[in-house]
């Protein structure tokens, strides 16, 4: 099949007077990882729930592996490895037993389940606690067991809604490894995240949404380029030399320099060779510089530029609600 794994067109979802989605278009090619990035309340979970047949869209349509989410929900569920009901972790079973149970639930071969269980326990740092009942686990360990359970099967298309929110940094890296392994084995992944760095690390394509609308899409590099690419930034020592410094920077820049007190910045192209040219130009103008850097915009800059607010991780409301992992 040449069709994309996930196609959404004009998805709208209204909850009473709340418009959670305002007409979302989205494509995930087979074998790709797409990151759906957006602040709290942007509509990420709503989008994922529609794509996984758990919610019906108010308008628009979505196809998963060629199947319509509204008209062919059974086929869609098979493609995304979603069982009928979301089975929860069993308190009285050990971590290992829980994973084995999920494997049985999916009718997966026993030898596969055993191998996969060992791998997931290791990836989520639960090997030592594997033979203890889940009820003895800390909040962080439960969350990791939860994630591991959801990854026992390797469906052809996988949706992950904020898979690393609330995980400690080490477990986050473990999760990234598991996702990368899945992708290496051919799984297509759509993940939502509030972490810009995560989208940057994992996703080939990033779709930024806000207020139920797609406000930007592209690779991390393309998004960074959208807001102007690299900038050179210099700080000068003598305020009376500003004009000479601006002239020197203008000569190497690709756009008009911006002056903020002793700091002068300008868009540039051509990478680090620009730095050498800038040093020469400043030198020939006799301008003394206290700092000189080439700054690549981060996804944080992109996010701020697009949404007018900083990314979620800075907001106290976005702190993990489950409490810190004590494991
Ligand atoms: N079941 C619901 N009933 C009413 N409003 C909802 C419901 N689910 C989500 N919303 C609203 O829809 C918007 C998008 O929510 P959501 O998809 O959960 O965003 P995100 O996952 O990006 O944080 C929010 O304003 C939220 O309050
Ligand atoms: Mg959500």
Describe this structure in words.
The chain has 327 residues and is of the alpha+beta class. The protein folds into three domains: 1-82 and 155-227 and 298-327, P-loop containing nucleotide triphosphate hydrolases (Rossmann fold, 3-Layer(aba) Sandwich), CATH 3.40.50; 87-153, no CATH class; 230-295, Alpha-Beta Plaits. The chain is 35% helix and 24% strand. The strands form three sheets. The protein has a five-stranded mixed β-sheet with strand order 6-7-3-8-9, sandwiched between helices. α3 packs parallel to α5 and α9 runs antiparallel to α10. The longest helix is centred in the middle third of the chain and has 16 residues, at 169-184. The radius of gyration is 24 Å and the shape is elongated. The two termini are 45 Å apart. Residues 313-327 have low confidence and may be disordered.
Topology summary:
Elements: E1 6-15, E2 18-28, E3 33-37, H1 44-51, E4 59-64, E5 67-68, H2 73-80, H3 95-105, H4 110-123, H5 139-150, E6 157-161, H6 169-184, E7 188-193, H7 196-202, E8 205-210, E9 213-218, H8 220-226, E10 231-236, H9 242-252, E11 258-260, E12 263-267, H10 273-284, E13 289-295, H11 299-307
Parallel strand pairs: 3-7, 3-8, 6-7
Antiparallel strand pairs: 1-2, 1-4, 4-5, 8-9, 10-12, 10-13, 11-12
Helix pairs in contact: 3-4, 3-5, 9-10
Bound molecules: adenosine-5'-diphosphate and magnesium ion (MG).
């Amino acid at each position: 099949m040449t069709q994309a794994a996930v196609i959404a067109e004009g998805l709208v979802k209204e909850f009473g007077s709340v418009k959670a989605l305002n007409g979302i278009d989205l494509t995930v090619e087979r074998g790709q990882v797409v990151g759906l990035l957006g602040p709290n309340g942007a509509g990420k979970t709503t989008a994922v729930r529609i794509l996984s047949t758990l919610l019906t869209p108010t308008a628009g349509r979505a196809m998963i592996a060629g199947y319509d989410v509204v008209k062919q929900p059974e086929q869609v569920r098979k493609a995304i490895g979603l069982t009928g009901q979301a089975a929860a972790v069993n308190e009285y079973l050990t971590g290992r037993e829980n994973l084995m149970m999920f494997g049985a639930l999916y009718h997966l071969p026993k030898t596969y389940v055993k191998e996969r269980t060992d791998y997931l326990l290791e990836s989520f740092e639960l090997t030592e606690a594997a033979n203890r009942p889940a009820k003895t686990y800390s909040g962080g360990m439960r969350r990791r067991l939860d994630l591991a359970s959801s990854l026992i099967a390797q469906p052809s298309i996988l949706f992950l809604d904020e898979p690393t929110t609330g995980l400690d940094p080490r477990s986050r890296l473990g999760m990234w490894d598991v996702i990368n392994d899945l992708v290496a084995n051919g799984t297509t992944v759509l993940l939502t995240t509030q972490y810009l760095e995560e989208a940057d690390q994992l996703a080939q394509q990033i779709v930024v949404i806000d207020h139920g609308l797609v406000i930007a899409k592209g690779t991390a590099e393309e998004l960074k380029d959208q807001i102007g690419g690299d900038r050179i930034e210099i700080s000068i020592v003598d305020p009376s030399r500003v004009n000479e410094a601006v002239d020197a920077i203008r000569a190497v820049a690709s756009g008009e320099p911006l002056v903020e007190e002793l700091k002068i910045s300008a868009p540039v192209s051509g990478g680090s060779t620009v730095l050498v040219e800038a040093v020469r130009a400043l030198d020939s103008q006799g301008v003394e510089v206290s700092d000189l850097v080439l700054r690549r915009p981060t996804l944080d800059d992109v996010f701020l530029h697009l949404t007018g607010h900083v990314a979620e991780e800075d907001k106290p409301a976005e702190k993990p609600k489950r409490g810190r992992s004590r494991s």
